[in-house]
Every structure is written in C-alpha cells, then in structure tokens.
Amino acid sequence: xxxxxxxxxxxxxxxMYLVFIAMMAMxxxxxxxxxxxxxxxxxxxxxxxxxxxxxxxxxxxxTKGDEKPEEFAIAANKAQQINTISKEFYNYIETLxxxxxxxxxxxxxxxxxxxxxxxxxxxxxxxxxxxxxxRLTKAGAAVMAKIEKYKSDVREVLGTDVKYKKAVERxxxxxxxxxxxxxxxxxxxxxxxxxxxFPAIASFTKLTAMQNDVKxxxxxxxxxxxxxxxxxxxxxxxxxAIVLAEKSAFFAGEKFQGKVVxxxxxxxxxxxxxxxxxxxxxxxxxxxxxxxxxxxxxGNIGEKKINGQFTxxxxxxxxxxxxxxxxxxxxxxxxASVAADKMNVLYRGLENPMTISFAGVPDSNVKVxxxxxxSANGQGKYxxxxxxxSQNLIVSVVATLDDGTxxxxxxxxxxxxxxxxxxxxxxxxxxxxxxxxxxxxSRILADFGDxxxxxxxxxxxxxxxxxxxTITVSGNRLNPAAKALINNAPRRSLxxxxxxxxxxxxxxxxxxxxxxxxxxxxxx
Length: 524
Hints:
Blueprint: H1 8-67, H2 69-104, H3 125-130, E1 131-132, E2 135-136, H4 138-158, H5 165-174, E3 180-181, E4 187-188, H6 190-195, H7 200-226, E5 241-245, E6 249-251, E7 255-262, E8 272-275, E9 278-279, H8 282-285, E10 292-297, E11 302-314, E12 317-330, E13 337-340, E14 345-347, E15 352-357, E16 366-369, E17 373-375, E18 381-384, E19 392-400, E20 406-416, E21 422-425, E22 431-434, H9 436-441, E23 444-447, E24 457-466, E25 469-474, H10 480-487, E26 494-504, E27 518-522
Parallel strand pairs: 6-12, 14-20, 22-27
Antiparallel strand pairs: 1-2, 3-4, 5-7, 7-10, 8-9, 8-11, 11-12, 13-15, 15-18, 16-19, 17-18, 19-20, 21-23, 24-25, 24-26, 26-27
Helix pairs in contact: 1-2, 1-7, 2-4, 2-7
C-alpha cells in the first residue's frame, strides 16, 4: 500500500482496510476477555456450591465426633482446624481481588452483579503492585508468604499420620509454587509466570480459581476424615516387614548388617522401632526410602531369628507391624577351597584351568600365588601352566576377612606329562586287518583316548614299511609311492605304520612323543 503515487480513492481504500483490521483485533480481544470473565463466573458459582457442601460435611463430622468420640473426635477436631485455616486464606485471596478491582478502577454492575469483563484489559495493575524488575515488591513477597503459610498450616494439622500421606501429596501438587519452565526453556518464578503481564480479568480469574482450590482441598479433607474415598488414604495394615541382609551367612563374632523394609517400600517414618528386644533410635536408623538399617552382633554358629516391630501412627492410634526374619551364622574358614577343574593333577604343556575360592570371602580379598599361574575370566578362575622339571606344584592362598584377619592356606598338586598318543587308521588302532583300498584311502590319525582334556592332534609325518621296504610320508595320507607299495604287496602281507609324528595346538614347552604304531594285515 506504500510507494509510488497513490490516488485519493486508493488512500481511502487503504485507510478502510486499516480500520477493518483494527476492529477485528478489538473484537478478538473482547472475546478473550469475555471468555476469562465466564470462567471466573463458573469458579465463583462452584465456590458457593462447594462452601455449602463443606459446611454440611463439617457439621456431620462434628455430630459424629460427639456421638462416637473414639472413632471421630480426632477427625472432627482436625476438620475444624482445616476449616479455620481455609477460611482465613480464602478471605485473604478475596482481599487481593478487591485491591485489584480498586486499583484498576473497576466496579461491579449493580444491576447485573457482573464485572466489566471486556473493559478489564489492563496488564499493569498487579505488575506495579507485586513486581519490581526481576524481584518481588513487599506486597508480592507477602502473597507468597501467605500461600506458604497456608500450606504449612494444613500440613501441621495432618501431621505424620500415614493415612493422610496421599492427601498431603495431592495438596502439595495442587498448591505447588515451584519455578515454571516457559516456552523458551527458562525457569520463571511461580508468581511471575502466573500473574505478570496478564490482563486484569485473567489475574482476577486465577485468584478465584485459587479460592476454588482451597474449597476443593477442604472438601477432600472432610471426606477423608469421614472415611469417604474422594481422596485416597494410605493404610499400612497390609504391609509386611522384610529383612534384607547384606549377605546370607555371617562368621561367628561378626555384626549383622542389613536393612528392614516395609513391603512396597512405603516411605513412612515410624514412631518406634524395636529389634531383638532393643529399641532403636528412629532418627538415625531410617533412611530416605523408609528402610531401617540394623547393626547388632550375630551370635554363635547356627540359624538365627530376627524379631521386632515397627510402630506407626494411623487414625491417631499406634499401629504395630511385626518384624520377622532369619539368617545363618557359619564358622570362620580355616582353609581355602582349591580344586583343579579337570583332575587333582596338573599337566605339563597345557593351560590347566583352576577354581580357587574362600568361603564367605569376596574374590577381591583373596590373593593366589603359584609358579605358572595367571588370572582368567570369571570370579575365582585361574590358569596354571606348570614349569618343566618339577613333579609337584604348591598353590598358596591368602584371604583377608571382613575384620582384617588374614587366613593362609596351601595345597599341593602332582605334575604329569601328557599321555602318549595312539596311531589310528580307518578308526582302528594296534594290530588290525584291512583291505588295500581302506589302507590307501584312509588318513593316519592320532588319538589320546580318554584323556581329560579335549586335544586336537594332527599327524605331520609317518613311516610305512611293507616286506622290509620303508617309505617316509609327509602329512597324514599315503603318497603315490606308498600306495604303489601297498597295491603291489601280496595278500596277507604285514604293513607297519610307525614313527607317527604328532602336533597338538595349544601345547607348549613339551615334546609330544610319536603315536603308538599300527600293524595292518592286508586281506586282499
């Protein structure tokens, strides 16, 4: 619409567009202000209705307190305190609403009884009253102090009775004044976030909504005191005390260390805790999860029982929950448990796996030493490769107990050589009978029989002798010359396969002797 020469008619059209856009913006603003006004009216109407309901509930509680004092006297007294606290805070909020109208120059229409919603668009009324820069004024600080006092007073009335735990949690959420994260990800003070820069009608509506929260809180508490289910109560009657020991068995003379917790990990502080007939200081024993830490002498060897009780306050009366558990005391170890995983011997040239442990002592507190020993993967796992020349090997173990005591233990193992392998052809060994085809097509193998280790031997060379003529063959199959010697041999000729050289992967430092010879009698 700007730029160039514009005619008088076009200027008039442009001006009309601007006026039209401004009118639309004004109408939209009025609609938003009216919406806040309607919300405020709804909250105000709800507050009137809830007040009447709450008065009836309070009257019922007072009557029940007179008729059944053992059951309702405490609840009736708490309800009257909540009523007094709520009325005081409700009226204080009303003074804030009055000040807002007065400073904004707004009045209620005497004929309709309504506020001038569409005219309440000022945003600087509470800004000037409650805020100064990034800080609160004395008036703003007083508002926050009143809210915190109301919350503190309600919590004090409910006390530590576990039946009101859920109600307190919901109350705290309803009146939370924690900092709020705005759309830019910045944390803003609660009062600033909710009231700074808002039109007067929006702030007025929020104050009425806070009054509604007060009435809802009052109704929830009254229903709870009456035993209704509007606000869920917590009961510990179905909870079970569980003993959690740090370890399942203890040495004689040690102190038991563990925890006693309630089922579901109820974060509730008891009024009293007794274990093994001794009262324990609750303030020092209970942690943030509601678990009680125990510390007492475990006694002599054998199975032991843990007896005691939690005492909580519920419905103004003590509720006792028994503690039942057990543990086992074992003697202190005098020697290590050391065993070769394969046999009670060690073999030269092999990596002999070994498991070494000390009863009741963690692996980190066990030190093991022996020639050729090294740690392996896994708790208490080791590998020993025995040195050459020795016939025995001693494994030394030193364990450090929980109290710092060191226990020494030693165990001796025999050292043996790997057994001699046996030669095989066509799955047979020793003196056998075969036809010429089986001899010429089969591989020459070596086998360690029932040896405890699974070795994979390979034949690298052998000698084949027929009718006094000997051929040396490389590998594990007959070469053409050896095959020709077999094929030309008469029936029932003897074939001797000896000097069978064997290699075994994983064996080091020792020489594998040749496999036992094979004698074959040709059947064709």
